[in-house]
Amino acid sequence: DKSSSYKKENCFISIHHLVHYKCRTMKLLLTFSFLVSLGAVNAAQDWYSLRTTFSLLPFTGFWSQPRLEKKARSEGYTKISDCSDGESFPGNRYIPNYDHPNIVLIYDVNGYIAGIQSIVDQDAWDNGYVNFHEKSMYQPSTINGKEVFLTTAYFVDPQIICSTGRTRYQYKTQGTGYTLIFQNGEDISQKNLMEIPLIEEDLKDSDFWNEHLCFINMGKHYFNLHYDPEESCGNLFPVQLIYEEGFLHGFVWQHFGTLPGDLWEHPPALAISRIIKDPPTCILDAIATVGLSTMHVYFKNYLSICD
Hints:
With 307 residues, the chain is α+β, with helices and mostly antiparallel strands. It has helices at residues 2-44, 69-74, 158-161, 168-174, 269-272, 281-288; strands spanning 51-52, 63-64, 78-81, 92-95, 103-107, 113-121, 139-143, 146-154, 181-183, 193-195, 210-215, 219-223, 239-244, 247-256, 292-298. The termini are far apart.
């Protein structure tokens, strides 16, 4: 009858609308969830700082480094090259006014921070553990008339440093940068660039990086070391990665030898055993003989509490 048909039709319409409503609601929830997670990632990657050098006491380390070229100049930093020089390393490059400068800060054409280099003094070259001349991460250069080796990290795509650079808006929203890329060769051709995952989870299948230990006010460390006390130091990559709460927090330069300068850390063997799981004997031997020099570089607040 008509009444029955009307009820059936309305029932069908109601079910149809209900399914449509549920699908639409599900899409909205998924979109909202994606935006929230994306916002969390962006917030976690907000690199609002640039500091170097771990210390047990806050007032003897965690030194703030200038992220603007004009600030570097006002603090007495000296320009050693710029984009017009055709260097192997792009950018306007500055060293601090120290007797033994330990770092080179790299700025783009607009004066915003773009990268950092560590300076390995000649005195560390003959260390018996790593031949710097044979390692592509170590590139020869001359600073203040002295021959040195440099290791280089970029916080932006190196191709833009001497072309467009970053805008003021990009610097304000991204902070120190938006990526971590190491130059593992004589120039910035793609084959010489090593990009690091920003999310710790993306390292789980890595054949190169292995998870080690977390240390307070450092973070969780990753090395290209396995868990073998007999492992050779000859192939040790001169970088450690640091993650905090699942996101890239900074990194560490590491070189054999006792390098001069206030920005270097010289960890004792006890500290190494709290950072490296089953540390290679060669690292402990190096600490007891030629020494080990490290430098933590932080993109965010250095305060870190390990679980």
